[in-house]
Amino acid sequence: MKKILTTPKEIDRNERVLYAGNHYISIPEINVCDASIKSVNIVSLFNKALTEIYDDEYVFKPEFYVKEKKINIEKIECFKENYYISCFDVHLEEDINVIIRIYADLCEKGFVYEFESYKEIYIKLICNLKKLRLLRFNSHNIDFKKEFIIDKWLNNPAVNISSNSLSFAMAFGGDRDFNYEYYEDRLILNLKCKNKNAFYITMNSDVDGASTTLIHFKRKGFENIYLELKEWLCRKKIEYRRDLTIERILNENLFFNYFFAVGKDMESDKYISLTSRSHRYYVSGAFWERDSFLWSFPALKLVDIELYKRLLRDIIIVHSKNAGDHAHYIDGTVLYPGFELDEAASYFISVEDLEEYDREILKSLEFVLKRIEREYDESTMLYKTFLLPSDDPSEYPFVTIDNVILQRGFINLSRIYEKIGQEEKAELLKEKAEGIRIGIYKHLVKNIDGKDIFVWSCDKMGNFKLYNDPPGNLGLLPYYGFIDYRDEIFKNTIEYYYSERYRYYFKDARIKELACDHHPNTPSGLGLCGSILNPIRKDKAIEYVKLAVMDYGLLSESFDKDSTEAKTGVGFATGSGYLAMALYEALIKNADKEEKF
């Protein structure tokens, strides 16, 4: 086997962006220097991808005028209201101050560009709809036709966008005092603003749908759209008054995961799960089982339990036919082959949250189980993997964390079979789980420097590897119920890997988290999440989270060991879910349990 690593390119300098969106529409990149939007995307299950209107400069850009004189920005400050709504405090020439908010309707197919100024100004929103691409793993530019239309209902401008494989439309309007200019393929939206006013931009499958959605927005009004979203965010936020910095980090990551790791197909209204709807993430628009089942869904559950249960069931059914393959398209077909045991095992981690166990869901779970059983080794009682949690090839087939996750999964699945009266299957899974436990202690515990520790992986010939892959951090063993964190072997394990004896530990780094083969020079944000869930490392890890810049408060895959700024994996929505759920588990859920006792 050739050990070919597909490693991400390090970011030279990570630029801050804001973002907006709901499950239909994502706005992943809002420029913090001028409040312009650089891209807008929707889900296209037909194309197995996200469809994105984009431009390197801008897709929508506001300009400000007093009468006919253009007024430039002198200073701009950006912030998030209620941990999600993108806001800008803009200081213009002539002592004019404007507040800008960009937000999507909570449920409908459109978004709002809101402006607030107590001096009368005129705002032009320059529309630059010139480029279209599909986001699925990488970006794929596509040719398209653009047709400008005046809708009959409001006489509003609309644009129909079509290619050989897709078609959708956008409609444009304002709350009041709105007009537009269109010439030489250039659309400019105009608005007079004193106090508050807003542009509406709506999308749908065709011009009729986009324009009727625009009518709905005008009837509803931007103030009600804003209030509905604000009240929802207030209800859903997680309070942690002991530390407001942690509360901010937790909730910003929580909501980014909720809106950017989940999508709703405009054509079918089917929900999908994916790594990220932000093109800033280097493998956006695709599905990883680990990322969704282990990281994103536990955070989603904290926000909307009904959506979580629906998605859990739907995603198990859609993706189980290719359980364990490295990466899937959003429709469940294989994008990137290569078996990963932890990904296959991840289907079983939350199965007890399913509301019913009908034939379809049981068939899907049994299909996953059969795929996993192909990797069973009777002599060790362990299961093999081809790729690691970092998605890179494994030197030895039996990996500790993968088998630990599987053991937890087998225990969970056995309880389901007990509930539905299939005792024989339940007992078999319990025996398998116990066999894994025995196999791990027999083959994956070695004496290093006079102390027993868990090694990373081994084969049947006695070879083993000392390694700790951050997406599958060995510090997670207590989290999955495999061992008590006070156990000597576990304490020895953490002591070894977080020391100068281990090559991916940086003793002089500001944040002492582990790097790995996948990003050898930069500590891991995912490893930091694992440390939060590790009682031995928890307190230090939480201090590190407060110290880290990463993706300006959002989790990044890795970060610079000195500046703490993101170096790989920005716009990483499922990773944000991991950070949010880890903070909740460590600081709130477990604290609640302790108070009860």
TrEMBL record:
GO biological process: carbohydrate metabolic process
Pfam families in alphabetical order: Glyco_hydro_125
Coiled-coil stretches: none
Database matches in PANTHER family: MEIOTICALLY UP-REGULATED GENE 157 PROTEIN
Protein name (record): Meiotically up-regulated gene 157 (Mug157) protein
Organism of provenance: Caloramator quimbayensis
